[in-house]
Each structure stands twice: as structure tokens, then as C-alpha cells.
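TASK: fixed-backbone design
INPUT:
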């Protein structure tokens, strides 16, 4: 077989997922990664016996992971149904502890987490969100009985959006305007295009419940006041398949993907920053990517090039302007970037904290919601108050910290670097403020005297280390005008064999979305390289899957923390 050569720039989850898929389609794939290890945003920081996932911690849709671990070399397996019947079973999957599947189990152990999130309000009360309708209703009733009817309304509307927007259309690649116009009337009918927060406000009177049912897009860089209501589907994605954790941390999932990619014959080169995508052609004629140039000056050729890097970085830093008719510098500059984050990684002594009243995932909301979001996303100023997401994985997996300690990170949304904030000055100050808050409010008593490890990253890390324009934390901002056809295209409009994969392209950010993106990009590659259309359109005969070497777990494990 004459194997064509593919190059992927970056080893984020999207890059790795596409690498696995391209190996399965019959390409010889090399991943060039700037950093010394894989994962991108999911890079792992190890220090003093602690393991810190630097980025994603909430895993949803374990089926997407299982699908990747099921792929075989040269099997061209893009024809599987995207949502096979067996994962759509309406039985209560959360309580039954759905695990990720036999092929995943060979690489990484993934377990469900309950509750999904504990959401603390500023007055110290909280809401445990766990996807169980009865417990959800009980907690709504305790906060605002009148909102029970609103929950029914929200639930039904979110379900309709999930069915159409995720199950039926989730994998649609909007490469031309017509494909988008075809589905737009449906989305308007479902009320999925107006801002999520206004949609939620129509259902709930209580400001607390308005926050509970709208905060989720923040986890993928979206402003709940601005993202279209199609994002209400996140609620249903979580409810349907649960929230999961990779034992040992998300880094173990990344390691599993690397292993799988290498087993399929792929190659990864670390410490290999790409400085140029080498293109041939002219502005108005056909343009072809011939390969890439690395920072050390070496050149590598390929039949196709994919960037898993940031959209703005890819076009404005790696491709010379004479090859970009559509994605010119002005367009790149006008594209709105998501907000950024300050993330504090810390380890602390746990003696005497046996009754620590925290869960694995804690959302700690500040005193203001709408005003705070406006300051972060629009005014781009550093607010005096903050909300945060506090992650304590050692509550589920003690191996994340040395004995007698906990490993944690807390993530604070902040403006991206369009703000001009000097993070060398403000980063340490905000870090101190946040840790003091966690101690004084009693979330972690005597935290500061218990700390044995502490470090933080600011938007400068996203800009300088991860090459993300303006230090965006989550890629191109998910707003209506940057969704579907209007989001950067997975197949470049400028260069015929250049592709994008990852949070900036379609369908968007978050680990499940970038895995979907990898499949969508792989389908475009398969189409353009003449690989069987049946395979691409999802109607091929089911590919043969290897018999599981590891038996599925019989007694499902659910971490309740
Ligand atoms: C703190 C944080 C928490 C998050 N939490 C969650 C969560 O709980 N659940 C969830 O689903 N999502 C979460 N997300 C979002 C999720 O992590 C991302 O959407 C996803 O991981 C992005 O993957 P990606 O494939 O787009 O690539 P990225 O992770 O952005 O990786 C891109 C890679 O490209 C490399 N690169 C860039 N330029 C070059 C170059 N010129 N040459 C070579 N290499 C280059 C970079 O070094 C990097 O490794 C979180 C994000 C952050 C930052």
C-alpha cells in the first residue's frame, strides 16, 4: 500500500484524536509538538509528589473515547454510527455507573463522578447537580418552589435541542453557507439561537437557579450571556452520559491516546515547534501545503498538513500572507477570542481535614454573575470579586497526591490579553486573594499554613507557551456569529490540503467537541483523498472491532465525593 504522509502540528487532544484516525485511514502521520510532552491544554504538571492536570478535568461522552481506542490501522473506520443505539439507552446510566468500554479499559480506567458538580453560592448554600431528576427537583423546590414548572420547561426545551442539535446535527460539517441555511430554521424553531442566559431566565425566577442552569459554557470558554441557547445541550449531554474522571488524571487519557497512536504506527516528535507551513501557489490560484519548517530550520514534507494549534496562530504566524485570501490578518484580528483563566495548582496537608466539605468538582460562585461576566468578556477589566472552579481529584484518586495530602487546582475566569493587564504583577496578587478566600470562607480551613506546593498560570502561559492569540483559554469564542459555518473551517478555504483540528474549529471547544472535530476533519480528509464515500458518510458496513482483551467491569464503580 502506498501510504500518504500526514503532518499534524500539535499534540492536544484534538491532534492526538486525529492522529489516531489518520493512521486508521491509512496515512503515515507525524505529530510535531512544541512542548516536551503531549496534551496541550491537558499537559500534566508533576511536582513534589503531586500530579496536576493543568487543564481539562471533566470528561463527558465516554463513547467518543471508546470509539478512538477501538480503531484499527488502515481500517478506514469512519462509517460507524456516530451515536449507536446501545449508548442511547434511556435507562438511568448515571446510577448504573456507565464506564467507558472494553477498548478504553486497555489504556486507562475511567470512572463516573457523583455529584457532577457541587455549586456553591456566595451565601454558602449549595446545589449538588447529579443528573438525577428527583434530586434535582428536590433541590430546586428547596430554593424556589415556583421554579419547578420552569425546570420542566427547561428540561423539555434542552432535550429537544440535544436531540436535534447534538444527536442529529452534532457531526455536521458546515463547509458552505448552504449547509448552514438548511438547518437554521430548525434551530430558530427550537429557540436555540437566542442567548442561553435569556433562555434560562425565561424558565427560572431564582437568580441562583439561573446560574446553576447557565454556567456550563464557561467550562468551554463561552459567556453564558452570549452563547446561543444551543449550549443548553451540555446539560443533557451530562445528564445522558454522566461526568467522568480518568484515574491518575486526564494525563492518563492523553498517555493512552499517545500509546494508541504509536501502536497504529504514528510518530510524535516533541520539542519541535513549527515556525512555517510551506505552501506553493499564488493568492488567486490553487495553493498546496507541501510540508512544514521547524524552529531549527529543518523541513518536512507531507501530502497533507493539519494544524491543531490556535486558529489565529496558524494563519497569521505560520502561513505567509500571499497564500491567504480568506483568512487574512484583518479577519483573524476581528475574530473574537474566548476569555482566559488564572489557574492555581496547589498541594496541601490533609491531616485533620477528614470532614473537608468539598466534592471532586466545585463551582464557587461570587457575589455577582451578569456584571462579572460582562467585565471579563466585554469590558476586559480585572474585577475585585471572582467566581472559581475548584477541582480536588485526590478526593477520588489518592494517588494524585503524596500520602496525607490533597492535590487541587482552582480556575478563575479572567479577561484575555486584549485587556493589557500586567500578569507578572496581578497574577501573584490574584492568586493570594483566591487562596485567602478559600481559607477565610472555610472551604479549606487554614489553607495557607497547610500549603506544601503552589504555582499558577495566567493568560501569558496560554499566549507564550501554548501559542494562543491574546492568551485565549479556549480558542475562538463560541458566539452565534462564530458558530457552524462562521467558525473557522476544518478544511482551509485558502489551501486545499490544509486542515484544522481542535477547539478553534467546528464544532468548538471542550474535550468531547475536539474529539468530534477530529472525526469531522478526518471525514473531510477521506473525502478529499478519495477514500470510500460510504465510509465517510457513515453507512459503511460496521468495521470489525477487536475482541476485548480486558473483560468489561462487572461491578461498575462510581466515585461519590
Ligand atoms: C484550565 C482548563 C480547564 C479545562 N477544563 C475542561 C474540562 O473540564 N472539560 C472539557 O471538556 N474541556 C475543558 N477545557 C477545554 C479543553 O481542555 C480544550 O478544549 C481541549 O483540550 C483543546 O484541545 P485542542 O486539541 O484544541 O488542543 P490544545 O490543547 O490547545 O493543544 C494544541 C497543541 O498545539 C501545540 N502547538 C501550538 N502551536 C504549535 C506550533 N507552532 N508548533 C508545534 N506545536 C504547536 C501546543 O503546544 C499544544 O500542545 C479546559 C481548558 C482549560 C485551559
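OUTPUT:
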Amino acid at each position: 500500500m502506498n501510504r500518504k504522509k500526514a503532518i499534524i502540528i500539535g499534540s492536544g487532544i484534538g491532534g492526538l484524536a486525529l492522529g489516531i484516525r489518520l493512521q486508521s485511514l491509512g496515512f503515515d502521520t507525524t505529530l510535531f509538538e512544541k512542548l516536551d510532552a503531549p496534551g496541550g491544554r491537558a499537559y500534566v504538571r508533576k511536582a513534589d509528589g503531586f500530579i496536576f492536570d493543568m487543564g481539562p478535568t471533566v470528561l463527558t461522552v465516554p463513547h467518543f473515547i471508546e470509539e478512538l481506542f477501538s480503531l484499527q490501522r488502515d481500517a478506514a473506520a469512519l462509517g460507524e454510527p456516530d451515536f449507536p443505539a446501545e449508548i442511547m439507552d434511556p435507562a438511568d446510566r448515571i446510577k448504573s455507573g456507565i464506564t467507558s468500554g472494553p477498548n478504553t479499559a486497555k489504556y486507562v480506567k475511567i470512572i463516573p463522578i457523583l455529584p457532577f458538580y457541587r455549586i456553591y453560592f456566595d451565601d454558602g448554600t449549595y446545589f449538588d447537580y447529579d443528573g438525577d431528576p428527583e434530586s434535582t427537583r428536590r433541590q430546586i423546590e428547596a430554593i424556589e418552589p415556583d421554579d419547578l414548572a420552569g425546570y420542566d420547561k427547561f428540561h423539555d426545551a434542552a432535550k429537544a435541542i440535544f436531540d436535534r442539535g447534538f444527536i442529529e446535527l452534532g457531526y455536521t460539517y458546515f463547509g458552505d453557507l448552504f449547509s448552514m441555511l438548511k438547518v437554521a430554521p430548525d434551530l430558530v424553531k427550537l429557540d436555540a439561537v437566542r442567548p442561553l442566559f435569556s433562555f434560562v431566565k425565561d424558565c427560572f425566577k431564582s437568580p441562583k437557579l439561573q446560574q446553576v442552569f447557565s454556567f456550563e459554557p464557561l467550562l468551554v470558554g463561552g459567556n453564558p450571556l452570549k452563547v446561543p441557547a444551543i449550549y443548553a445541550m451540555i446539560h443533557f449531554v451530562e445528564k445522558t452520559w454522566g461526568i467522568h474522571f480518568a484515574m491518575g488524571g486526564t494525563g492518563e487519557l492523553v498517555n493512552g491516546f499517545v500509546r494508541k497512536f504509536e501502536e497504529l504506527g504514528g510518530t510524535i516528535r516533541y520539542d519541535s515547534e513549527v515556525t512555517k507551513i510551506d505552501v506553493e501557489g499564488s493568492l488567486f490560484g490553487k495553493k498546496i501545503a507541501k510540508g512544514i519548517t521547524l524552529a531549527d530550520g529543518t523541513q518536512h514534507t507531507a501530502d497533507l498538513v493539519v494544524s491543531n494549534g490556535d486558529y489565529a496562530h496558524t494563519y497569521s504566524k505560520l502561513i505567509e500572507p500571499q497564500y491567504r485570501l480568506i483568512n487574512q490578518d484583518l479577519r483573524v484580528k476581528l475574530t473574537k477570542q474566548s476569555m482566559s483563566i488564572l489557574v492555581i495548582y496547589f498541594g496541601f496537608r490533609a491531616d485533620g481535614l477528614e470532614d473537608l466539605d468539598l466534592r471532586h468538582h466545585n463551582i464557587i460562585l461570587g457575589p455577582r454573575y451578569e456584571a462579572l461576566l460582562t467585565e471579563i468578556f466585554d469590558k476586559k477589566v480585572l474585577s475585585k470579586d471572582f467566581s472559581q472552579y475548584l477541582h480536588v481529584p485526590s478526593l477520588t484518586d489518592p494517588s494524585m497526591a503524596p500520602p496525607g495530602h490533597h492535590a487541587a487546582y482552582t480556575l478563575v475566569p479572567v479577561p484575555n490579553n486584549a485587556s493589557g493587564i500586567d500578569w507578572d504583577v496581578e497574577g501573584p496578587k490574584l492568586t493570594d486573594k483566591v487562596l485567602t478566600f478559600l481559607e477565610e470562607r472555610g472551604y479549606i480551613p487554614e489553607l495557607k499554613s497547610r500549603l506544601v506546593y503552589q504555582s499558577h498560570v495566567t493568560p501569558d502561559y496560554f499566549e507564550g507557551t501554548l501559542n494562543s492569540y491574546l492568551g485565549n483559554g479556549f480558542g475562538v469564542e463560541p458566539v452565534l456569529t462564530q458558530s457552524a459555518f462562521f467558525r473557522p473551517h476544518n478544511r482551509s478555504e485558502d489551501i486545499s490540503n490544509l486542515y484544522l483540528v481542535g477547539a478553534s474549529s467546528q464544532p468548538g471547544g471542550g474535550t468531547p467537541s475536539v474529539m468530534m472535530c477530529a472525526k469531522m476533519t478526518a471525514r473531510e480528509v477521506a473525502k478529499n483523498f478519495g477514500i470510500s464515500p460510504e465510509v465517510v458518510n457513515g453507512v459503511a458496513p460496521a468495521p470489525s472491532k477487536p475482541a476485548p482483551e480486558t473483560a468489561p467491569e462487572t461491578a461498575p464503580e462510581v466515585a461519590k465525593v
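COMMENT: The longest helix spans residues 147-168.
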